[in-house]
Amino acid sequence: DTTNALDALSQEGLSQEQVQQEKEAAGSGGGGPWEAVPGTALEKKKQRRRKGQRKLVDVNNMDDENEDDENGGSGGNERQREHPFIVTEPGEVARGKKNGLDYLFHLYEQCRDFLIQVQNIAKERGEKCPTKVTNQVFRYAKKAGASYINKPKMRHYVHCYALHCLDEEASNLLRKAFKERGENVGAWRQACYQPLVAIAARQGWDIDAIFNAHPRLAIWYVPTKLRQLCHAERNTATASSSASGGDQLPF
Amino acid sequence: DTTNALDALSQEGLSQEQVQQEKEAAGSGGGGPWEAVPGTALEKKKQRRRKGQRKLVDVNNMDDENEDDENGGSGGNERQREHPFIVTEPGEVARGKKNGLDYLFHLYEQCRDFLIQVQNIAKERGEKCPTKVTNQVFRYAKKAGASYINKPKMRHYVHCYALHCLDEEASNLLRKAFKERGENVGAWRQACYQPLVAIAARQGWDIDAIFNAHPRLAIWYVPTKLRQLCHAERNTATASSSASGGDQLPF
DNA sequence: AGAAGGACCAGTGGTCCGTA
DNA sequence: AGAAGGACCAGTGGTCCGTA
């Protein structure tokens, strides 16, 4: 099957490019512990490369617990999805076919590196220079081999990363609490909104200003829902404070 | 003709809204001398309103030299184009069916006022707040009755306004020189690029930074051609300076 | 010929929903 | 059921070119 062979080669190509990308990105804090962890994008890329090569040279061993029960046995060259996230505490490595939250946040740092590269190219060429992670940056990341980075995913968890940036201690405590309670990622994600709204309340409700004041956060668009929550809560707070300070008795 | 009557009414409505808009905008420097000058958008609106009313009440006089030889006698309710610009010196009012450059620059100030209004509405609603004159602002301006403001025109002359903001004296001298030579607006417009490139050269070639550092200019996108000229000239300048400082003889 | 601006187009921000 | 991400869509920045 020519198409599948090409696909394997293309994935092989992506894989190599990605390793190079990882090396380049290593300047900003190293690749992290995921390089040796099964189940992360990086390791999956390596698995895929091994499989691609096996088709050509029929070699390599099977050192991963779940290596071959994926892809329905249809050749093993489909681009598989990333493993889903689970709630992990800081420093904890996800076991099995899962990714942890340190890895999630690492993806945001990678996007930042890609943005910086896109900015450098734009400046070099005298073109207009993005200040945010735009479609152009996601496209660049994909071309550079980071096929596990995509816009819907990154946008989905932006506010979780925001909490991690703005109050790492609160973020860590939340992760531990939700892990202990056995909550799923969706519940943890929802729970990240409230502490951010509280931060905004303390700083005049200007969530845009809060994002922009933080260098690693400023490159991300403020999520619509977070903006709406801040707005709604501000109005509630204003109404209740004017009520308690006005002609109504506080209870 | 129902359509024409409605059109007349709609233009009447726009006209009134615009007058209100002018009053609101007057806070930032007054409406300027154009309020009483035939041939500007404002006066044309008034003419159009008079014509529209004449259809209904058959009254009003003809106090403008060119009032009725426009529109091919087809009813007088077409939305006519703005009079073309001519090169005027500062303070000079364009005569005949022309608009002057003070009026052109006034349009940029009006757009700024519209942007500020859009920003205030967005903040009020907790929506994302534009920092530049976007399509949304042009739409708002049109709805507010400023039908003589449109994107292609404003973008076309942005760099002329930039020179006016960044070096008003140089801008004024250029206007006088081109008026004296009897040059048309297109020639003057072209001539506005070079002084801006010279300004950029003095400030490290970063035309975006130059725009952003000026409060009235920061709300406008840097025109593509100006960006390209700065980039090209920077490369030329770098090449020649490295040549003269390197292994080639300067001539 | 010189100029104003309606209208188009490629690529954007945003996220839904068919997929695994 | 919970979650990842391809793919769509309304509205954007940019400006061409049919119009006057």
Order of helical and strand elements of chain A: HHHHHHHHHHH
Count the strands of chain A?
0
Q: Output mean pLDDT of chain A.
A: 76
Q: How many helices of chain A?
A: 11
What is the approximate shape of chain A?
flat
Query: What is the rounded Rg of chain A?
Result: 22 Å
Task: Give the oligomeric state of the chains in this entry, treating copies of one chain as homo and distinct chains as hetero.
Answer: homodimer
Structural class category of chain A:
mainly alpha
Function (chains A, B): Probable transcription factor.
Protein name (chains A, B): Floricaula/leafy-like transcription factor
Biased composition (Basic residues) (chains A, B): 45-54
Organism (chains A, B): Xanthoceras sorbifolium
Q: How would you describe what is shown here?
A:
The structure is a homodimer of 251-residue chains. The first copy, chain A, has eleven helices and no strands. The first copy, chain A, has 251 residues and is mostly helical. In chain A, helix 1 packs across helix 2 (41-57) and helix 9 (193-202) crosses helix 11. The longest helix of chain A has 25 residues, at 101-125. The A-B interface holds A 125-129, 208, 222, 227-228, 230-232, 234 and B 125-129, 208, 222, 227-228, 230-232, 234. Chain A binds a DNA duplex (20 and 20 nucleotides) through helix 5. Chains A, B: Residues 72-238 form the Floricaula/leafy DNA-binding C-terminal domain.
Main attributes?
251 residues, mainly alpha, DNA-binding, disordered N terminus
